[in-house]
């Protein structure tokens, strides 16, 4: 245990100090590759910075484990001795822990001679940006190695340290990025009727969009539409010719997501006809919802034991692990980090966790690798 913890600390602290943003994880990828080589593996380079390790036990089916490897553009404020050496970048979402857990699994399996299935370890770039998981899927690696199931984890400060938390079915939301620009016509405020006020139109749109959630979508279908940014006008006594606003849409259903987008487009058309303005609109889905496979969920629950916490409700956070679940059965779960010392949330400059929880993560990964029975 102490030997594993020492190795975990070494891996985690080195990775924490070299955070890199999506698809630019060159130092991170090099370090992972070299550490895997030291264990005796022959890592595969997939995509420019992604890495995979295939453990062939000559079985028909393969079980995959995935870690994301990228960081965020956040200035670290943890004060730890191994803090980021890359200014303005930080592992503020626990990906240093995710990578360490997967390295730990590789370490545990390096001398194993037989398992019920083959094992594929995936170190995925670009989770925080678009196309991270799809870039891995598009390599054809799942078909090549006959992958029939996949697990992934996330350090999670909303769950108590020492707990493994999960639920079957919806766990995390589908997310989309909303971008709207209203093009009106400038005029002096004293002659506002000669202009087309983009601020007023944008205000109507924001209000009407919220009514979609409260009056069009069933209250049994949780969804969030948040406008977090708005820009319009330049001078107080001039009718604003252009106003833009940006937000996020989150649901647990791709059908509900599409219905909301179509309803927003309907309001846009109404405003364009009523005010003779032009509205540029985009609300592309960023990630599908994370929907945990029932069978693999039961296998996880069976292997966790007493430390398992079944979540009553999903969360409105998003995760690109969902793309894998569109093509193969998968389960995503949380490793609790909440304690008296570390209470900061994800994506904050003070996020941190005790490295002992990574021992628990590695041991659970090993149990899954040894015990999970894969379906068809």
UniProtKB/TrEMBL annotation:
<dbReference type="InterPro" id="IPR011650">
    <property type="entry name" value="Peptidase_M20_dimer"/>
</dbReference>
<feature type="domain" description="Peptidase M20 dimerisation">
    <location>
        <begin position="177"/>
        <end position="265"/>
    </location>
</feature>
<dbReference type="Pfam" id="PF01546">
    <property type="entry name" value="Peptidase_M20"/>
</dbReference>
<dbReference type="InterPro" id="IPR036264">
    <property type="entry name" value="Bact_exopeptidase_dim_dom"/>
</dbReference>
<dbReference type="InterPro" id="IPR002933">
    <property type="entry name" value="Peptidase_M20"/>
</dbReference>
<protein>
    <submittedName>
        <fullName>Amidohydrolase</fullName>
    </submittedName>
</protein>
<dbReference type="InterPro" id="IPR017439">
    <property type="entry name" value="Amidohydrolase"/>
</dbReference>
<dbReference type="Pfam" id="PF07687">
    <property type="entry name" value="M20_dimer"/>
</dbReference>
């Amino acid at each position: 245990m102490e030997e594993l913890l020492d190795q975990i600390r070494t891996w985690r602290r080195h990775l924490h100090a070299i955070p890199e943003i999506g698809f630019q994880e060159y130092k991170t990828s090099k370090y992972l590759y070299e550490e895997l080589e030291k264990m005796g593996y022959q890592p595969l380079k997939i995509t420019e910075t992604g890495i995979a390790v295939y453990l062939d036990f000559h079985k028909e089916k393969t079980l995959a484990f995935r870690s994301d490897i990228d960081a965020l553009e956040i200035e670290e404020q943890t004060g730890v001795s191994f803090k980021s050496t890359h200014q303005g970048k930080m592992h503020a979402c626990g990906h240093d822990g995710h990578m360490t857990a997967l390295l730990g699994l590789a370490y545990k399996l390096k001398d194993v001679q037989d398992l019920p299935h083959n094992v594929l370890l995936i170190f995925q770039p670009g989770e925080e940006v678009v196309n991270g998981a799809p870039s891995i899927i598009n390599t054809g690696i799942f078909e090549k190695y006959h992958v029939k199931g996949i697990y992934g984890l996330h350090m999670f400060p909303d769950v108590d340290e020492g707990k493994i938390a999960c639920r079957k079915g919806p766990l995390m939301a589908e997310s989309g990025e909303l971008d709207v620009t209203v093009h009106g016509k400038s005029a002096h405020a004293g002659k506002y009727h000669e202009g087309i006020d983009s601020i007023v139109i944008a205000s109507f749109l924001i209000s009407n969009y919220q009514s979609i959630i409260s009056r069009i979508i069933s209250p049994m279908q949780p969804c969030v539409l948040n406008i977090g940014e708005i820009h319009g006008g330049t001078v107080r006594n001039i009718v604003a010719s252009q106003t833009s606003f940006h937000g996020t849409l989150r649901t647990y259903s791709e059908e509900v997501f599409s219905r909301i987008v179509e309803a927003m487009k309907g309001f846009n058309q109404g405003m364009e006809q009523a005010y003779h303005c032009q509205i540029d609109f985009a609300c592309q889905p960023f990630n599908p919802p994370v929907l945990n496979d029932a069978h693999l969920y039961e296998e996880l629950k069976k292997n966790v034991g007493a430390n398992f916490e079944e979540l009553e409700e999903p969360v409105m956070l998003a995760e690109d692990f969902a793309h894998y679940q569109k093509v193969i059965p998968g389960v995503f779960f949380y490793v609790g980090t909440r304690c008296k010392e570390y209470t900061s949330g994800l994506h904050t400059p003070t996020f941190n966790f005790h490295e002992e929880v990574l021992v628990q993560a590695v041991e659970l990964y090993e149990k899954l690798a040894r015990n999970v029975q894969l379906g068809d």
